[in-house]
TrEMBL record:
SUPFAM superfamilies: Adenine nucleotide alpha hydrolases-like (SSF52402). Keywords: Transferase. It comes from the Eukaryota. Residues 180-210 form the Cytoplasmic tRNA 2-thiolation protein 1 C-terminal domain. This is 2-thiocytidine tRNA biosynthesis protein, TtcA. Pfam families: ATP_bind_3 (PF01171), zn-ribbon_14 (PF16503). The keyword Metal-binding does not apply.
Length: 245
């Protein structure tokens, strides 16, 4: 396992947090229930929250991710295609969440994926290059193919897309949803329940598609019935899973 190898080489602290420990489900189990169409929704939501929880366990000051220029350009395209312009500021910023307990940083924002791979190869560094076995059906894959086609015609396409995303940012005077905490697990959320709890509720009730898609109308009101009829076990710790902080 590559993370164990790097831990041994550099002597850095290592905290492995699994979906099974946090949420009671593995990704394979989720795919068996939800299928290959919307599995990335679950993985994306759970992964982001798991990173924050792992960072909290280690009591770090900042969370640094390996997102590169290709990743950010893909996210810009996806947000534009979905009409989600409000997310462009967050996805194109090098540092986000500065008003929260653990800010996130993307130091490779302007570094191409191929440059990182070439550097790792020539420096003989250990790195993980295997694609997720469920990614061929991911919506992001279409954005990746589109950007690769653009880059063949215009080598600066990736950086141009990132610049466009930065320019599309919503004005600072625009009122955005206030960020609070999930009533169920205590994680940051602009709704009554965080997305992870909504997805978990669907999985535990045998209705995995319940939390997929953009919420409409009064989201908080929509979950009152869910909360009342929930058959999931009570969560004692302030989180979606079983790890305490």
């Amino acid at each position: 396992m590559i993370c164990h190898s790097l831990f041994s080489q550099y002597g850095l602290p290592l905290q492995i947090v699994s979906y099974k420990d946090l949420y009671g489900w593995t990704m394979d189990e989720i795919v068996k229930m939800i299928g290959l169409k919307n599995n990335c929704t679950f993985c994306g939501v759970f992964r982001r929250q798991a990173l924050d929880r792992g960072a909290a366990l280690l009591k770090v000051d900042k969370l640094v991710t390996g997102h590169n220029a290709d990743d950010i350009a893909e996210t810009v395209v996806l947000n534009i295609l979905r009409g989600d312009i409000a997310r462009l500021s967050r996805c194109t910023s090098i540092t986000t969440g500065e008003d929260g307990p653990i800010p996130r940083c993307k130091p490779f924002k302007y570094t191409y994926e191929k440059e990182i791979v070439m550097y790792a190869y020539f420096k003989k560094l250990d790195y993980f290059s295997t694609e997720c076995i469920y990614s061929p059906n991911a919506y992001r894959g279409f954005a990746c193919e589109f950007i690769n086609d653009l880059e063949r015609l215009r080598p600066r396409a990736i950086l141009d897309i990132i610049k466009s995303g930065e320019d599309f940012r919503i004005a600072t005077t625009t009122k955005m949803p206030e960020q609070g905490t999930c009533e169920r697990c205590g994680y940051i959320s602009s709704q009554k329940w965080c997305k992870a709890c909504v997805l978990l509720e669907g999985l535990n009730r045998g209705l995995p598609k319940m939390g997929i898609g953009r919420p409409r109308g009064n989201v908080n009101g929509d979950y009152k019935d869910i909360k009342a009829r929930s058959t999931a076990k009570t969560i004692e710790s302030k989180q979606c899973g079983s790890l305490d902080f």
